[in-house]
Amino acid sequence: MPISTSEAQAALSDIAKTSRASATTYGYRHASPHLIVWGVIWALGYGLSYLRPQYGATWPVLVLIGTVASFWVGWKSRPAQSKGYDWRYAATALAALLFITAIYAIMPPRTGLQAGAFFPILIALLYGLIGIWTRGTRMLIAGIALAALTLGGYFLLPQYFMPWMAVVGGGALILGGFWLRTV
Amino acid sequence: MEQPDATIHQPLRLKIMAALKALPDREQIEFVRLKSLVGATEGNLGAHLSTLEQAGYIDVEKDFDGKKPRTRVRLARSGRRAFDAYVEYLREIVEANGAR
């Protein structure tokens, strides 16, 4: 049963295509619950910031809840062969937190609107980069959509930015999370 | 490898092995996801999974997720080795003819 060069090339190409699709699907499946968790956190955070702006603890408490929920989701869906928690998740969260703290220290936002728009843009960049490097079209689309919705709300609807981000930003993340699960 | 591994050589089984190999070690994939990944019908996929399981290349686990029956598949260690050897075999053919 000899194989010709063209058959071998076609088989290698099939393998590469299937491997890529499988890895992408696996990544989507693992990213999906994180998007849903943070979509809910955003909806609550921006919603409460609009309805109850006097509650200063809203975001710190919600970010803490979101971080714990994300850890739990990461733990639950860890790869079968892994013996413990992959501390790269915690290191990533810590690096992001330090980066945002540094940026806010160097260039403190002058308004709540600026503070509220910066974080979603950063997350959109992250999703976009993941999409580009993993050839994950859906992650790339989620990043572009999030950036467009944030910028749209910031420049076109500044007076409604908080409810806009609660409904549209949070909603986009939740829908994006469910969308990734359909692959 | 003088001859290709006949079990893996079949195009759909090759796709199944490639899809499983792309997952982290010992990670399982659900039957329905695998079906959509390799573009097979349910019956066809089931038959090819049986062949791979009989060869010892994959492990198939059937259980219930709540009340719903669930079938999950993962690559066995011997399957991983056989797939790597098969890919190496294909590369050697391409390289040998490309070098001429």
Secondary-structure map:
The complex is a heterodimer of chains A (183) and B (100).
Chain A: H1 5-51, H2 58-76, H3 87-106, H4 112-133, H5 137-156, H6 161-181
Chain B: H1 6-9, H2 11-21, E1 29-30, H3 31-38, H4 42-54, E2 58-65, E3 68-75, H5 77-99
How far the N terminus sits from the C terminus of chain A, by CA atoms, comes to 36 Å
Percent of residues of chain B in helical segments? 55-70%
**Oligomer description:** heterodimer
The dominant shape of chain B is: elongated
Count of DSSP-assigned helices of chain B:
5
Structural class designation of chain A: mainly alpha
- Measured between the Cα atoms of the first and last residue of chain B, the distance is 20 Å
Largest interface: A-B, 24 and 31 residues
Average predicted local confidence, pLDDT of chain A: 87
Spatially, the strands of the biggest sheet of chain B line up as 1-3-2
Strand content of chain A: under 5%
Strand segment count of chain A:
0
- Give a short account of the largest sheet of chain B: 3 strands, antiparallel
pLDDT below 50 for ≥5 consecutive residues: which ranges of chain B?
A: none
What is the gyration radius of chain B calculated from CA atoms? Answer: 15 Å
Fraction in beta strands of chain B: 15-25%
Based on secondary structure, the structural category of chain B is alpha+beta
Helix content of chain A: over 70%
Summarize model confidence as the mean pLDDT of chain B. Answer: 91
Give Rg of chain A in angstroms: 20 Å
Features:
heterodimer, A: 183 residues, mainly alpha, 81% helix, 0% strand, B: 100 residues, alpha+beta, three-stranded antiparallel β-sheet, elongated
